[in-house]
Short-chain dehydrogenase/reductase 3 (Euphydryas editha), 312 residues
Amino acid sequence: MPRIAMVNIQEAISLVFEFLWTLIKVNYEILRGIWRMIVPPEPKDVSNEIVLITGTGHGIGREIALRFARLGATIICVDINATTNEETANLIKQEKGKAHTYQCDVTNRAAVMQLAEKVTREVGDVSILVNNAGIMPCKPLLEQTEQEIKLMNDININANLWTLQAFLPSMMARNHGHIVAMSSMAGMMGIRNLVPYCGSKYAVRGIMEALAVELWDDPKGFKGIKLTTICPSMVDTGLCKKPRIRFKNLMKLITPGEAADMIVDAVRRDVIETSIPPELHYGIRYNYRLIPFRAAYVWNTFFNTGVEAHED
């Protein structure tokens, strides 16, 4: 048999075995994922972690900060509003927690880089980064101004990239860290009056998925850096002033405290992606995507959940 033919046969056999081994690994990961849903791992200890949270001046950011502080973590409170940010730090300190405040415009890359240098020098290396800051204009696309859309993308998308560039290197140097990003249910499905916002939250999920691949594919294998993407539904933070919920017992408006409890629990259990409430995640991510778009639209119309247009 010619040498070339022998090589081709060997390559074919090798490819078959590689494919079969890949199938085994894929099914193993599926079964492991199902098992982790049924029997979640024990929450990890965060008492020695330095947790930086953006948008801690109010709402979910403040509540996340309080909960991590109660678990013994050192909290870096970052917000553009120095007054409300200081209020959050004072609440933490009243509970004997450890908190430091920094005022920063996270849309400004240079400011974020300076923030990273200052935090590292004054407190230490950030080991948990929570990109929480965000805004949500609620009105039809054609009524949103260029300035509103650019600002929203700067906060909801670019700020994530700037903080990653600022704080990821120290995590990679230690192969230790956790990055948390706030996407949204609007990052998993289209919603009326939230066209640019949906785009920004889809972008957050894309950034986190691509970052996971980039870290895992790296020859150094940065498996010590965990990623968690959170997709809240409607949370009563003041951003969504006119929620529309048809089945209120099924999909109630969630308080910032309830959301923070679920977020901190997901981080401590190294959940890669979840929704708030968690039971919506697989229903939206898989069922909504497995059926044709028109069919998904019919379901969405039946549930009639979304936001009415309003000014900020």
